[in-house]
Structures are given as C-alpha cells and as structure tokens.
Amino acid sequence: MQTNQAKRAVIILSGGLDSTTCMGIAQAEGYDLFPITFDYGQRHKVELENARQVAAHYGVADRHKVISLGFLKEFGGSALTDESIDVPDMTKEQDKSESEVPVTYVPGRNLLFLSIATSYAEVTGAEAVYIGVNALDYSGYPDCRPEFIHKVEEVMALATRVGVEGVPMRIETPLSEWTKAQIIREGMRLNVPYHLTTSCYNGQKEACGVCDSCRLRLKGFAEAGEKDPIPYI
Ligand SMILES: [Zn+2]
Asked: What is d(CA 158, CA 224) in angstroms, rounded to the nearest whole number?
C-alpha cells in the first residue's frame, strides 16, 4: 500500500461538533482530508471561523474551501437564514414542536452541499465524501435521512466521470445512527478539537445554551461524562 498515493476524502465541515468529529474519524480511517465549508448566510456565521480553525488544527488549511452560497439567504424560509423567523428557544413551551420538520431546516441544503462536495471530490480524486448527518437527533430533517443519502450516492455515480468509469464515490455518514453522547465519546478518543467548535444557532461569540442545538450538545457532553470546553453565556 505504501506505493499508492494516500486515499483522499472530502469532509463537509461546518465548524460544528458533528462535522469536526467527521474530520477526526476520516483521519483515523487513513484519509487525507479535503474540508469544504459553505457560507450560506447562516446567522451562526461564527461557524465559518471555527471551520477555518479546525482545518488549521488538522494541518489542511491550504486545501480548505469556503464556498459562498449566499443565494440561500435570498430564498430565506429557514430560521437559520431568515431574520424574520426566530430560532426556537427550547425553554419556552410554545417553541417546542413535535415530529414536523423544524424551522431550522434549510430548504435543499444538504442536497446542495453534497452536489458541490461531489465536484470537489471528483477534482481532487477523493473516493469518499463525509457528511455529519444524524438520523436520531435530526430525524425531522428530510435531508438527514439514510434513504436520502443513498439516493444521492446513486446520483453521484451517474453524474460523475469516476462513476461512469466504474469507481463511484461513496458518501460516508459515520454519525448517522449515533447518539450525541456516542459521537462525543468517539471524538474525545480521537482527540477531536471540540474547543474550536460551536453548535449554537444564534451566532454570538458565546453559545446561548438554550437553542435546540446547544441543548443537544450540552446533553451529549453530560451523558458522555465529559465537560464541554466552549464558553456559554
Ligand atoms: Zn444556542
């Protein structure tokens, strides 16, 4: 194997806990990391800086792509991209919703992300694209479901030269069936730099601690018996 060029993977890196864990997992799997981050007008823009720091931590800042998808903010339609829609505060009873698609869902986001990541993967010769989707905590998000991922993988095989030539790329979703606590335990084992990550939907320098995403994160650290290294308001 030594004579072969190291295998490569594109990692969709948001600067959050899940995607940063994917960096650690892909590295442990022996991949050269090619991170890609999307600026889609998210209110939690502080993520972008986190993503840069994570890429630098893994020594791959030079191949880290930050791609502007500013048009998603023009579309709006999500609490993450539309100032007129509030991010739910899970301490308030009226903000809790059951089973339906959450207002923090960004229409078409993962479909776009995977399409663009496919392009970067094909150009760099990557054999896999890692995305930190989770089917447990984000079960309300249609584009986090395994059936969605499998279909995109089929489309990737049809859409790319490497697919036509018989070596299609894979989509790796190592976190898909894990609880937050399992993700954090594995990340701690792999020395994932959680101090460089953020999960808060509200986008201040310090995390709010009460949005859906902060709550999941704090609960995950508590269940994993670990201390979250980032500051909270
Ligand atoms: Zn928050």
From this structure: 41
User: pLDDT tens digits, residue range 78-102?
Assistant: 877 777 777 777 666 555 555 578 8
Q: Are 23 and 58 in contact (CB under 8 A)?
A: yes
Pairing outcome for strands 65-68 and 8-12: unpaired
Query: Ligand 1 centroid vs 206 CA: distance in angstroms?
Result: 9
CA–CA dist 146, 136 (Å, integer)? 11
The CATH H-level (homologous superfamily) assignment of domain 8-224 is: HUPs (3.40.50.620)
Residue 138 Cα to ligand 1 middle (Å): 16
CA of 43 to the centre of ligand 1 (A): 11
Q: How far is the CA of 161 from the centre of ligand 1 (A)?
A: 41
pLDDT digits (tens, 9 = 90+) for 101-142: 888 788 889 999 999 999 999 999 999 999 999 988 777 889
Distance 3 CA to ligand 1 centre (A): 47
Give the distance (Å) from ligand 1 centre to CA of residue 223: 18
Q: How far is the CA of 156 from the centre of ligand 1 (A)?
A: 34
- What's the predicted TM-score (pTM) here? 0.90
- What does each C-alpha distance from 103 to 73, 88, 98, 159 come to in angstroms? 14, 8, 12, 31
